[in-house]
Amino acid sequence: MKDNTQPPGHIPSLVAGIAPAVKAVSSQGGDILNNAIRQNVIDNVAKLKSATPILSAAVEDKKLEVVGGNYRLKDGKVVPSCKGSSKRLGASYTFAEMRESGVRGILVYCADYQCSHSIAISGDSWPDDVRLSDIEARFICEACGKRGADVRRDFNWDKKRVRVIGYR
């Protein structure tokens, strides 16, 4: 992008997608690559939140939360990012707020991303004033034994569960 040369093949379409983020941070100090990556996440989260008519309505009705993340090539993991979202997913919600939005279940993911064990459970037994993030340290994974979890709202709590077998 510095010398305005045209890259070969399909690379121009990839460059066009990230060019606004690179231009936005080009005058900032620090690591331009990390700054551009961060800005690209923020920009894309904003675009998704305002995509009409379906996504923007779901975001406004609090049925959908758009959170950015980075895919790490070195290990194939997606790392959620707070950038582009005012809060970490689930951290700000109390069980009362969750229930008011019509959600009654929670998803509990093992804190060890290599384990990837998860379970869907009812949130009915938790008091209204407890935040989802408050209970994360209470869970111990049955698969790997690690303490700690990532707890999120289960928007499909009332749907029939389907077992899926995946590869690790």
Q: Describe it for me?
A:
By secondary structure, the protein is α+β, with helices and mostly antiparallel strands. It folds into two domains: 1-86, no CATH class; 90-168, no CATH class. Helix content is 28%, strand content 15%. It is built from four helices and five strands, in the order αααββαβββ. It has helices spanning 11-25, 32-50, 54-60, 95-100, and strands at residues 69-72, 77-80, 105-110, 118-122, 149-154. The protein has a three-stranded antiparallel β-sheet, with no helix packed on it. The chain has a two-stranded antiparallel sheet with strand order 1-2.
Write a compact overview of the structure shown.
This protein has 4 helices and 5 strands, in the order αααββαβββ. It has 168 residues and is an alpha+beta fold. The chain has 2 domains: 1-86, no CATH class; 90-168, no CATH class.
